[in-house]
Amino acid sequence: MKKKEVPQDKSNLASANFRELCYAVDENGEYTTENSSGWEPKTVALNNAIEEINERITDAKNRVIAGKTSPIEYYMELHKMDVGILASYVGFWQWKVKRHFKPSVFKKLSTKTLNKYAEVFEISVEELKSMSLKA
Amino acid sequence: MKPETIINFTHHQAAHCENGVVSNLMKHNGFIVSEPMVFGIGSGLLFCYIPLLKVNHAPVITYRALPGHIFKKFAKRTGVKMKREKFSNPKDAKARLDENLEKNNPVGLQVGVYNLLYFPDEYRFHFNAHNMVVYGKKDNRYLISDPVMEDVTSLSEKELEKVRFAKGAFAPKGHMYYPIAFPEKLELETAIVKGIKDTCKVMLAPIPIVGVKGIHKIAGLIRKWPKQKGIKAANHYLGQVVRMQEEIGTGGGGFRYIYAAFLQESGKLLGNEKLSELSKEMTEIGDLWRDFALEASRIYKNRSAQTDSYNKVADQLDHIADLEKIFFKKLKKAI
Q: How far is A133 from chain B (nearest CA, A)?
């Protein structure tokens, strides 16, 4: 890649006001660095990934409303987590977290357990429990 | 701790966080070592498909060595002694950090990205192998030199604790590191040779998921994805391949350009013409990786469903793999 070919496309980097560093060669074939504001092929890839996450969040939300899963799964998706990541944050086995997705099990969870989830999601236990009402 | 401790530390932006922290800490201690030099000596270049693991619900491939490895190998090969510490308790982690800052010692930290508030929201994923330098504290905020950022920034005590104790794969556990002893003179020459040999060995390894063979493996998977997983998933997977290759930190072309810069610098240092020639070749291979990304993006952008287009990008990867096979054989002979 030549220095003058380093792409300067619009990207999500602008929101944090920074440009990333790329390596490229100058007119004499010497390696140098150049800042890039973004490159469309990867911006599209990132946007698609975000869209995919948003779909998962909406889907989880609908399933909470339909009584098919607990708000824990919704908040997990909202925080871009999967079961493995959430399990390591709350300190439970993965199968236990999955069990807590069951609305019937969720209803009977102790405040102590709910508190663990609420802390990770940075919300109150009340918010965690009332998520379905809010939606 | 004093209300204000600011170490005279110069922030240099880097493409990749791990190289950047090492390069910046070396410069702080009076040794001018460029980012590509750290990357090359630390054998950072790689291609590896990690089966079974999924990140963001898509397969994972990596274009670089495991987190921490570049650093470890660089230190070992140049004879720099590093102190590394992990903590089970955030309080101890904070105390040790403050202690070092008081002693005028800037330290490297491994952190999770998800709670790094100065990153754009879209980039905040649960990735735990990010690196930064802390060089002081002012008004209860830690002063941060994050190598991928253009400028320095800061984090509150609570914010820093959160990223130091992020959970999930590669959980940092407060991981802190800094150089404690240096050789009288850095013997870069021997370190360069060791670094190159190691990279050639890995890229040509007879393991189906690693190096040149790994690239062929991914090409094969891309051909199968549309039929096996459906167009939607195939496009999502392909997007993730491109992101791993081009995301912040790679310097472009899946680290191939940084590696070419390393070969050029090494060629001059060792007086080895062949390395300079090979640097040009690596740049061309980097351009082909960029072409692959561009072509792949056309597929997931238009959500086009022709199996043909997947075969076409897979062909591009097979071609790159063939070229890299020849390239690393030549590189092995050149030193």
A: 27
**Per the structure block, which two tokens stand in for A26?**
């100058």
How confident is the model over B156-193, as pLDDT tens digits? 999 999 999 999 988 999 999 999 999 999 989 999 99
- For tokens 């002063």, the residue is B143
Q: Can you list the positions of beta strands (E) in chain B?
A: 4-6, 45-55, 58-64, 81-85, 107-111, 130-138, 141-145, 153-156, 176-181
Interface touch B283/A16, C-beta < 8 Å: no
Instruction: Round to whole Å and give the CA distance between A83 and A68.
Output: 17
User: Across chain A, which distance is largest between two alpha carbons, in Å?
Assistant: 70
| Cα–Cα distance measured from residue B278 to residue B53, given in angstroms and rounded to the nearest whole number | 34
CA dist B327 and B321 (Å) reads 10
Convert the pLDDT of each residue in A82-99 to its tens digit: 999 999 999 999 999 999
Is residue B15 within 8 Å of residue B35, measured between CB atoms? Answer: yes
Q: Please, are residues B282 and B263 in contact by the beta-carbon 8 Å criterion?
A: yes
Identify all chain A residues contacting B265, using CB atoms and an 8 Å cutoff.
31
- pTM summary value: 0.94
Query: Would you call A114 an interface residue with chain B, using a CB distance cutoff of 8 Å?
Result: no
